[in-house]
């Protein structure tokens, strides 16, 4: 079971690299445009756990990692582990995300999907 999770998370890292490359090539190397629900000011938006839980589908997928909220909808179809990313859609994915199978670069890459903090 742990090996399967590790393999799936390894695929996640690979896919994040691919998506990052596609984003850079599709906008001429410019940074990603701010999405409509990203904070416009320096204070991050906050979401309750119930708000995040509403985003639990393939075409609307948010996850929580260490009390930060990420909109990974654009990544779902690219996820090398298939629908495994949907197992924690709208919920906390911290345990699945952190592990020895990840290169340190994945921790920077996930920030591209950051939309706010989890409200406690």
List the helices and strands and how they pair.
Layout: H1 2-26, E1 46-47, H2 49-53, E2 56-57, E3 60-65, E4 68-71, H3 73-76, E5 91-92, H4 94-97, H5 105-109, E6 114-118
Parallel strand pairs: 1-6, 3-5
Antiparallel strand pairs: 2-3, 3-4, 4-6
Let me know the largest β-sheet: 6 strands, mixed
- Which range does the strand content fall in? 15-25%
Radius of gyration: 14 Å
Q: Average pLDDT, to the nearest integer?
A: 77
Distance between the termini: 31 Å
Which terms would index this structure?
iron, alpha/beta, Cytochrome_b5, heme binding, six-stranded mixed sheet, single chain, heme, Cyt_B5-like_heme/steroid_sf
Describe what this molecule looks like in 3D.
Residues 30-44 have a biased composition (Basic and acidic residues). It holds the Pfam family Cyt-b5. Keywords: Heme, Iron, Metal-binding, Signal. By secondary structure, this protein is of the alpha/beta class. The protein is 36% helix and 18% strand. Strands 1, 2, 3, 4, 5 and 6 form a six-stranded mixed beta sheet that branches. A hairpin with a 2-residue loop joins strand 3 and strand 4 (68-71). The chain is globular and about 35 Å long. The N and C termini lie far apart (31 Å). Mean pLDDT is 77; it is low at 24-36.
């Amino acid at each position: 079971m742990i090996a399967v999770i590790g393999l799936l998370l390894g695929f996640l890292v690979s896919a994040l690299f691919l998506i990052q490359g596609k984003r850079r090539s599709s906008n001429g190397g410019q940074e990603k445009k701010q999405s409509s629900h990203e904070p416009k000011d320096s204070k991050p938006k906050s979401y309750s756990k119930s708000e995040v839980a509403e985003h639990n589908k393939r075409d609307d997928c948010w996850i929580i990692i260490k009390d930060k909220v990420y909109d990974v909808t654009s990544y779902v179809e690219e996820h090398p582990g298939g629908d495994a990313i949907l197992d924690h859609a709208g919920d906390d994915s911290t345990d699945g995300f952190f592990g020895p199978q990840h290169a340190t670069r994945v921790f920077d890459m996930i920030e591209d999907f950051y939309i706010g903090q989890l409200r406690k």
